[in-house]
Structure formats: structure tokens, C-alpha cells
Amino acid sequence: MIDFFRDDLRRPLDVPRGEIAPGVAAAPAPAQPAPAPVVAGRWLCPGQGSILSRALPAGSWRVRWSAPVRVGGAPQALQASAERVLVQTATHWVLLDSERGEVLASGPRGRSEVLLDPSGERFYFERLSPHTLSAHSARDGREEFGRSIGHAGSFERTFLACLGGGRLAVGGVAARIAPYRPPDELGALELWSLGDPPRADDVGVLLTAERVQVLTMRTRRVLFARRGEGFALAFPGGVAFLDAELNVERALRAEFRAPERLSVDLDGRCHLLVQEEDGGSAYWLLSADGKLLARVPWDRARDGDVLAPPVLGPDHAAFLVSGKTVRALDPLGRLRWELPLETATGGASVTADGVLLLSLGGAVEAVRTEGGEPRRERLVDLGSGRLSTAPVLAPPDGRLLVAGPGAVHCCEAVGEGR
């Protein structure tokens, strides 16, 4: 199992260790997320709200507006508050007015995700040049402040999470900075206090930023997720649970070669896709205390690669989505149903009432479980090429947002229930 460090890579930390042992699965009670002022979804951020906090509105669906996105290629992710829609493409961010779809601002981003603050007031990303954490106003897109953070320029920021009270978690792995040299085998999770409220000087340099803690690992193959008030990490040969201050509560050795995908549900259970020691893939379900509750083999040759972290429902069901199929597993890891797909999937999400939403080709479909079987319903056909983001239900009224090449679409339910 890997070692953990603070700043000094010569001094590994002494942390509680153990092994992942078999456990007995019991069906957890359904979890209902509180209505959120901000919704985020690529495939929905792992451990940051895998469930949309709204039920699917009844009625027939129509397009309210479509907004052009002409920078950075096809949209990758959408985030929304009641007033704004934030679009992430491969190289840029685009800020839209949620009522009219008007483009308010856009700009380049660096090697990080773009993160809309839960307040809906600002968003964060790492700029490419100079390598600083940049905060922009969600009102007009203007930069509010910037600050150089650890490993500036040498790390890819694969994880950002707002923790409240002006604190931000930043996870990343060493980047390839020269084509002839492999990247360093390093990963790190940092905890930053930006100030509550943050305060910047006249040129926008953040004065109140302080790095609270860092946890470093000698591997690039590390996945990060929120887990309650703390975090879960998955890495070659194990997992670790951290508290809110990045102290390792427990590191557990596991018999897998490398993690591929990680989600954490509202009860702290970990849903993993792993590459096992024989080279095959499997879904692992771990209890909140790290027991192995279920293991489900995944046949890549037959079913293709799983495209995203397991998409989780309010009843703790897990949906494994590939380019060929959707497999629904119950809270104990048993197969509920399997749905072959005729076209590529651009994204998936689950509503608060357990409806799976899929971006399939140029349409959005709803999949309900009825009598143990999936029932598909086409909500809206946008006919604009292959959709590339997960559908999300935006506050305050559950409008459906989805994006594909060149455009973001806002749809609304009208008329009486079906």
C-alpha cells in the first residue's frame, strides 16, 4: 500500500491501516438530498451530490431557449444556479443568463475543472498562465481575485470542492511538463482557506488565502471524492478515508491493481470501478467502514468501457453506464436490470424520485424502474448532434439543461402530467 506524506516526502505519516474484508450488506434507508441552490453535472461530481435534488416535473417538454457555445469544442459539463448557467468546454468556460440564455462572458481555463460555488455568487478554476487559482463573479464573469497554489504549473487539478466557510479542497496529480519526460508519480490533496469573506488587493491578489493542510501520495493514479464532511481516496491497491482536516482516519489495502472510477453515496458507501489483479474490471461496493459488500465483474469486451463514475440514486441504486449498455444495481449490488443502448451516451443523472436521465444521441430520455424492468420515455429530441453533457434539473423550477456541439439547451415541462 502507498505511504502518505505532508510536505516532506522523506517522512511518511504513521496512519491507521487495515485490509478490506468481506462484509454483510443490509439495504440502507433511502436518502433524500436537500434542495440545492446550485446543481452541477458532468456525470455529476463524485461525492459532491450524485443525485439531482429535484423530482422530474410532469408534463410534455419543449425548448425554452438554445444558446450558442462557440469556444473550446463541445460542452463537457453544466452547472447552474437560479440566475446563471456555467458551461465548461475542453479549454474554456462560458457564462449564460439562465432566464434568456444570453452569453454574458467567456474565457480560457487551465488544467482544472470549473467549479460554481454553492452560493452561486462566484466560480473557480486554475488559470493556465500564470498558474493561479482564479475566482470570477457569477454575475458578469469578471475576475474577483487570484492566488498561486501549491505545485503551481506542475500539477493537473482533477478535483475541486467548496467546503463552506471560505474553504476549498484542491486535488491533483503531477502533470507532464515535457514531452520527453514522464510525469512524477505524485498526487496531492490540499485544503485552502480563502477567507470568509475573501479579501484581495487593488490588483486582485488574494490576501486572505492560507494553506491549511496537505496530504501527498507517491502515485498519480489517485481518485478523490467528498465523503460526508471528509474525503475518500482510491489508489492502486487500496482506499483511504480522511476527515475534514485531511487526517487519514483509515487506510485499507485491497486486492485490485488500480481504481478507475469512484463515487460516494450519502451514507458514505464507496462505489468503485477497479482493474483487478488479473487485468479484468469489476464494480466494488464498500460499506462506510470499508467492508466489501458486493463485487460485480464487468466484461469490457462485451459491454465496453464504463464512461463515468457510478451514477447513484436516492435509494442507493448504482447505474453503470457504458457506450453500449446501462446496468442498474440495487443497494446490495445485485442486478436490477440491463438496458442495451443503440447510440452513444453523452451523460447521465438521477432525479430525486429515482428517474434515470440519459443524453442519447440528440435526445434526452427518462428511464423508470417499473416491476423490476426499465421503461424508457423520450422527453425531448433536440436534433442537434450528439449531446455531450449529463441532463440536469436547474433551480428554482426544475428546468432541464443539456448541451451538445455548439449549443446549450434549456427545456421546460408544460401542460398537465402524462
In summary, what is this structure?
The chain is an all-beta fold and 418 residues long. Helix content is 1%, strand content 48%. The protein has a 5-stranded antiparallel sheet with strand order 1-16-15-14-13, with no helix packed on it. Strands 2-20-19-18-17 form a 5-stranded mixed sheet, with no helix packed on it. Strands 3-5-6-7-8 form a 5-stranded antiparallel sheet, with no helix packed on it.
Mean pLDDT: 89
Share of residues in helices: under 10%
Number of helical runs? 1
Supply Rg: 21 Å
Total of domains:
1
Topology readout:
Layout: E1 4-5, E2 17-19, E3 39-41, E4 60-68, E5 77-80, E6 84-88, E7 92-97, E8 103-108, E9 115-116, E10 122-126, E11 133-137, E12 143-147, E13 155-164, E14 167-174, E15 187-193, E16 210-217, E17 223-227, E18 230-235, E19 238-242, E20 248-253, E21 256-264, E22 270-276, E23 281-286, E24 292-298, H1 300-303, E25 311-312, E26 318-321, E27 325-329, E28 335-340, E29 345-350, E30 356-360, E31 363-370, E32 373-381, E33 392-394, E34 399-404, E35 407-414
Describe the overall structure.
There is one protein chain. By secondary structure, the chain is mainly beta. Helices cover 1% and strands 48% of the residues. It has 1 helix and 35 strands. The strands form 8 sheets. It has a 5-stranded antiparallel sheet with strand order 1-16-15-14-13, with no helix packed on it. It has a 5-stranded mixed sheet with strand order 2-20-19-18-17, with no helix packed on it. Strand 27 (325-329) and strand 28 (335-340) form a beta hairpin. The longest helix has 4 residues, at 300-303. It is globular and about 65 Å long.
